[in-house]
């Protein structure tokens, strides 16, 4: 084990314990392949599954695994019309599992997420029976304040560029606290506790995933 992995292993164990103290299930794995295996272990065959715009899940390989598995998917990207896409986005709130990641997580287990349309943060907060998050160790920061800073000044500008928004963060590379149409920071969700034990499941991965 290299020194970076050694550091991540001890830090990851602390974050796992912190998440558990907040009524979330949490796991630490070394590779994205292990993360996919753990996710499939947690999702019974026949489950209904949906997701928001998550790069971490795709990069880990979980998207390919569920598309080839015995599941019912509410996949908005397969919609043929805008109306069908909107209907699928609403169906996601009744899914057995909603997949995603987090923009940042503090060492004491607080999740911070920023959203433009807010379907993702809405699902994290309420609706789907389970929320399953795959989180690279690149998203672990010291405090809740650091998590908010990372979400606004690193994750949000990159995602705004990915979605080809015309916002100040696209041209400036950091948050300008704008109120521009298409703002990707419309809703901010801070998750510090899960009222339903184990509803939120976090798989920490000793890899860099997502933004």
UniProtKB/TrEMBL annotation:
Where is the LUD domain positioned along the sequence?
14-205
- Show which residues constitute the signal peptide: none
Query: InterPro entries of this UniProt entry?
Result: LUD_dom, NagB/RpiA_transferase-like, UCP020269
Which PANTHER family would you find in this protein's record? LUD DOMAIN-CONTAINING PROTEIN, LUD_DOM DOMAIN-CONTAINING PROTEIN
Query: What name does the UniProt record give this protein?
Result: LUD domain-containing protein
